[in-house]
Amino acid sequence: MNNLWILNMGFVALLIGTGIYCLLTMKNAVKLLIGLEIIAKGVTLALVASGYARNNILAAQSLAITVIVVDVAVIATALAIIININRHTKSLDVRKLTKLKG
Amino acid sequence: MHLFLMIGLVAFSILAVLTRDLLRSAICLAVASVFLALVFFRMNAVYAGVFEVSVVAGLITVLFITAIALTRGDQEVAENKHHMLVFPFFFLFLIVFDILVMRKLLGRIPAIAGSEAGTFGEVLWNQRTFDLVGQIGVIFAGVLAVLALFRQGENPRKGDTTLPGGQPQGGSSHE
What we know:
The complex is a heterodimer. Chain A is an all-alpha fold. Chain B is an all-alpha fold. Among the domains of chain B are: 73 residues; 31 residues. Chain B starts with a helix and ends in a 26-residue tail after the last helix. In chain B, 19% of the residues are buried. Classes of the chains: A mainly alpha, B mainly alpha. At the A-B interface, helix 1, helix 2 and helix 3 of A face helix 1, helix 2, helix 3, helix 4 and helix 5 of B.
């Protein structure tokens, strides 16, 4: 059971590393949100894998569902902001977001 | 089987990052969510798996595709040319670092706690009541934020448009 937990944590680290790489290198605003989503997947997997290893799967699931709900709200709001920014700048490039003026 | 599902999850996540087309990226993300849900089902986390499939693979993918469709034509963003070359080295470094850290952790994990009693509903309602209230608040905050962002501005009346200097443009003439 512990070895399975360590294997899961290894994959969690890979997921979070991939998401951080996406956040650091990409310039497309939608791609940045995809990176954020991959990090959220890693966090959810870490919660459920830890609950499974400690025989606390019910509490871990409830926490994972909380993370998923918060993630949906964040993604919906961020996509709405991106669409509004796209109406102003006609681009998804985050380097063009240099003005606070509307 | 578990290893295969995990490799599929990481592989589709990497594809979602590296693919240039945003629509393909969103679909790769949905497939990765399905792999994650299968992992949850194998860990007896049925409710988390159902949420992962329905909300993340369903709702979030629909949101992404809607946003991509609404911003069609403006998606050409000049990315860094070297990120496709750098990523394999970064990923290799990550795997080596990961293996080294996880080898240190072997045998240091505490013993397994006793199993919990009750059903998922009892645990969710009795232990995480405030989380549920917080989730309802987060959902309402998200809905209100989206409504506020998509609110149409008041249409200016004809003749009330002003020039940058503040002079009225058109409208009633004084002569």
